[in-house]
Design goal:
alpha/beta; five-stranded mixed beta sheet; four-stranded parallel beta sheet; 22 helices; 54% helix
Length: 648
């Protein structure tokens, strides 16, 4: 139950978070140029209504479709979402959040049904018509059915909220909000619930207090001040630094371990948030748009003219009440615990609170393979790619630099948009399954919290210790016979063999049971220097007849859009493979920027070579001049057939 709620909240926030910049752009234009704004301007004010009615809901629908089925799903999702948007006289975020994923699911299902059944030459026609027909039908459905239903639901929800507001009961929301935040549901609550409600209210009243219910930095500030003044041990000494990060940086996750260190202090943050909400209700405070991250700077930036007094007082009172309640609780019940112990407990409680069972390899997935040699990119992936993961990326980068590994790129990303070239993914326990499913080629490192995770030290030390792997030695954790994959320079890949040395053949391709899928081996008697050929993840640099092999199971055709001529080329190669008894090999197509991480062979045009190599550096490239009947298809088929025959 808890896991289902969390996944639903994460999905909702995943549609909103990528578009926070658009919300802020609308908020700034509104704050400055409406008649009551800072710089009233009738011309610029014309942007306000179309942006909130059409642009931002469409972006939300597009994002929802993208999460489900990449770019193709995003297009159908936007078309379907527009029906719900056009059918209402209010900003239709609820309809957009519904129709975006529904449209993507529809086209995804259609594609799975017609896969391999479309006559050669008709692929692009069928796929384009599918988008048009499905999108059009769903748009009409959204207009006549979904929009009215969403309007009714929104009106009922607004009436319910109005009931609590009119009776002064809205501050009771803090009883749910603060504990949920500590369980890492802050993004889901803020962007999945309060942001849509706030936008609806702001479109009518020009501002909304819903934008400040979760993002108010006051409760966390008060708690950290209490620790700084009456706390004990390392928690007391670390609290001032945490205040800067939380209040000015807007990273609320920094105070979660302090709550879990002494759970009784949750009463302080609840009381503080309730005081802040009550102040906003009484003084009619609020923001013009979502404030993300919840920093004092973004709170002030999103404050409308004439609203600074109410908002500043709400933040100040929230901090004061949180401090006054938390301080005596710390004196009475505070434990002399250090921050490392608190962080460990944070991880344990997070795993337990979400119904997760720690795996035997608690912090590392794919541990058998060890850290891949020549690590070039590490990605920290969380719900939105912001917040605490941004701080974690900074911490990890510093540790890598201290270990002499400053050349490794450390990036952050939403869990649904992990780059294909990620070699190591650092994510939370509850996101491990999603990360592994979306990036099967990468190693997954699981942490309880991104803030100061001890796994960073272990990862940096392991990469540093396996520095020999980049020079050709296997990782200490890898099996003795496992070779370490190395990057293939883009300009060293030939159209068919993947090697630039004419005197050396490419590594043999086979389904030898002794080689696991994706593994690469090479003849011990031959080195890259001896053969004059670069070693690669999908091509073994070995002389003809060497035993190096890779079990090819997936071939991907990559072009600008993943449609058109590449679809016909994929059909042609699939027929050739079937005729050669190799129909077990999956042949797919993809835009060059979205190549699946488990692609073993990539067929693409010469001009796309560098982009394909960068997108999936461990795959073999087969370059063609034209996807339509390229002679390389016969060569590739013959090579795969010979490899299968040679290895039984």
């Amino acid at each position: 139950m808890k896991g289902g709620v969390q996944r639903a909240g994460r999905f909702l926030s995943g549609m909103v978070m990528p578009n926070i910049g658009a919300f802020m752009a609308w908020g700034l234009i509104t704050a400055f140029f409406i008649p009551d704004g800072w710089l009233p301007n009738e011309a610029f004010a014309q942007l306000v209504e179309p942006m909130i009615r059409y642009l931002i809901p469409l972006l939300v629908a597009y994002a929802g479709g993208y999460i489900v089925y990449a770019r193709r799903g995003a297009v159908v999702g936007a078309i379907a979402g527009f029906g719900a948007i056009a059918g209402a006289d209010m900003p239709m975020f609820l309809g957009a959040m519904l129709m975006g994923p529904v449209g993507a699911l529809a086209v995804k299902r259609f594609d799975s049904l017609v896969e391999g059944r479309i006559p050669a030459g008709f692929e692009m026609l069928v796929h384009n018509f599918a988008v048009g027909i499905l999108g059009g039908v769903l748009a009409m459905l959204g207009l006549v059915a979904v929009a009215p239903a969403c309007v009714a639901a929104t009106s009922a929800l607004a009436s319910g909220v109005g009931f609590f507001v009119s009776r002064g009961l809205l501050p009771l929301a803090a009883i749910l909000v603060e504990p949920a935040k500590v369980l890492f549901l802050n993004n889901a609550i803020n962007h999945g619930i309060f942001t849509p409600l706030g936008i609806e209210q702001a479109s009518q009243a020009g501002k909304s207090l819903f934008f400040m219910i979760e993002s108010n930095p006051g409760p966390g500030l008060g708690l950290l001040l209490a620790y700084a003044l009456v706390g004990k041990g390392i928690a007391r000494h670390s609290a001032p630094g945490a205040i800067i990060i939380q209040f000015f940086g807007g990273i609320h996750e920094i105070y979660f371990p302090y709550v879990l260190m002494n759970p009784v202090v949750i009463l302080g943050t609840v009381a503080g948030n309730a005081a802040g909400i009550l102040t906003l209700v009484v003084l009619d405070g609020g923001l013009v748009a979502a404030a993300s991250p919840g920093s004092i700077f973004t709170e002030m930036l999103m404050t409308p003219q004439g609203g600074f007094g109410a908002n500043i007082l709400a933040i100040a009172l929230a901090a004061a009440v949180s401090f006054l309640v938390s301080s005596p609780l710390l004196k009475l019940f505070g434990k002399d615990a250090d921050l490392d112990a608190a962080r460990r407990r944070t991880r344990e409680l997070e795993v337990g609170s979400k119904g997760l069972e720690p795996s035997p390899e608690d912090s590392v997935r794919h541990a058998r393979a060890g850290v891949p040699g020549a690590v070039r990119k590490i990605v920290l992936a969380c719900d939105a790619g912001m917040g605490s993961s941004a701080m974690g990326a900074s911490m990890l980068k510093k540790k890598l630099e201290a270990a002499g590994l400053g050349g490794i790129e450390v990036a952050r990303s939403p869990i649904s948009e992990i780059p294909k070239d990620a070699q190591v993914i650092v994510t939370r326990h509850d996101l491990g399954e999603l990360a592994a499913a979306g990036s099967p080629q990468a190693r997954i490192v699981l942490v309880g919290t991104f803030l100061g995770a001890p796994e960073y030290d272990a990862l940096a030390a392991e990469i540093a210790a396996s520095g020999m792997a980049a020079a050709g030695a296997a990782s200490p954790d890898a099996p003795p016979d496992a070779a370490v994959p190395r990057a293939v320079p883009a300009d060293a890949v030939s159209p068919v063999t993947g090697s630039s040395d004419d005197s050396s053949s490419a590594g043999t391709l086979s389904s030898d049971d002794s080689s696991s899928p994706g593994a690469v081996t090479s003849d011990d008697s031959s080195s890259p220097e001896d053969s004059g050929s670069p070693s690669g993840a999908a091509v073994a640099a070995s002389p003809a007849g060497a035993s190096g092999s890779v079990d090819v199971r997936r071939i991907v055709f990559a072009c600008d859009s993943g449609m058109g001529a590449s679809a016909m080329g994929a059909t042609m190669l699939k027929k050739k493979l079937k005729a050669a008894g190799l129909d077990y090999i999956e042949v797919k197509r993809s835009p060059v920027s979205e190549i699946p991480g488990d692609a073993q062979v990539i067929v693409t045009r010469h001009e796309l070579k560098e982009r394909a190599a960068a997108s999936c550096p461990d795959a073999r490239l087969v370059l063609v001049a034209n996807f339509m009947g390229a002679p390389e298809y016969d060569c590739l088929t013959d090579e795969l057939a010979e490899a299968r025959k040679a290895h039984g």
